[in-house]
Specification:
The chain is mostly helical. The chain is built from 5 helices and no strands.
Length: 103
């Protein structure tokens, strides 16, 4: 998915793959907090992961170009991602009580 986003948006190769891998690694560590908790805690973790992904992409862009990108378009990309939380929460609730061997 990350490499597709790099090709689609014309960014540097590996930018979004790195951002998504950082979030994936963080969520692997935080997965114990995601299961069986209130929706507000899940939203906090989701929002934190979105912020982490976009901050990683912002930081890599700043380090690569020595120029800070505009913040308003960054927030414009973050908002639709945050609005997808009900779908992510529905998936977490649906698969919350599945096989615990994978936890």
């Amino acid at each position: 998915l990350g490499l597709f986003l790099d090709l689609f948006w014309g960014g540097p190769m590996g930018l979004w793959a790195l951002g998504l891998l950082v979030v994936y690694g963080t969520m692997l560590i935080m997965r114990i907090f995601m299961s069986g908790h209130a929706t507000i805690i899940n939203f906090g973790l989701y929002a934190g992961s979105v912020l982490l992904a976009f901050f990683t992409a912002y930081l890599v862009t700043v380090l690569q170009t020595d120029n800070a990108p505009a913040i308003i378009p960054l927030v414009g990309q973050m908002l639709p991602t945050l609005l997808l939380f009900p779908v992510a929460d529905w998936l977490m609730q649906k698969f919350d009580d599945n096989d615990v061997r994978f936890m």
